[in-house]
Amino acid sequence: MELIYAALLLHKAGNQVNEESLKKVLEAAGAKADETKIKALVAALDGIDIEQAIKEAAVVSAAPAAESGAGEAAAAEEKKEEKKEADEGQAAAGLGALFG
Asked: How far is C-alpha 15 from the geometric centre of its chain's CA atoms?
């Protein structure tokens, strides 16, 4: 995870995301720099528009949260309706008892 943060920090600062710069950022932060993982990340980011990837990730992560909130609201509304119907049924049964 440190590698991703380092890459994002370098990108945000306007610096090139390469093996040397990633290693320097990790070492400055006191994290261990694994050469293999650094090379893999640099290779994976080759040709990727980081700004576009960030925008797409923000949209994707916001969508499930919105859906779950809507689902919870619908479930709460359904419970309220069920309770209201149950209360009405009990009231009707009570009135029936009065007139026997």
From this structure: 27
